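Quick start: load a record and inspect it. Here is VOC family protein:
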Amino acid sequence: MTIELDHTIVPSHTAVASAERLAHLLGVPWSPQAPLGPFSPVYLNDGLTLDFIQTDEAFPIYHFAFRVPEADFDAILGRIRAAGIPFRSDVRGGGEGRINTDYGGRMVYWNEPDGHQWEILTVSYARAPA
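Running the structure step on this input writes:
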């Protein structure tokens, strides 16, 4: 059996602006309005979409980690720096403006205005190497 994550909903107090900002940083397409539903989708790849939904309610802070090739990491980090967004090497804070290389690749973390935490990494540390 093959299971693939198709989409997930990201609650936001500024859905369109948050979707646009993430899409710009990652260098992927987005839309202010989904063809179906009340979402502002960010199209991460051919099979996965983050659907930002507008809400005035309180919501938990989510963490999303995006594994990217080395060249894309450099481009994304360049856009983060150009936008003046603070980034760090540690998930809980600390290592401000530094890149984490603890797991054989590179990774950085940053938070968006709603508080959600984004991460880009070049090597997954979620699973042991094959």
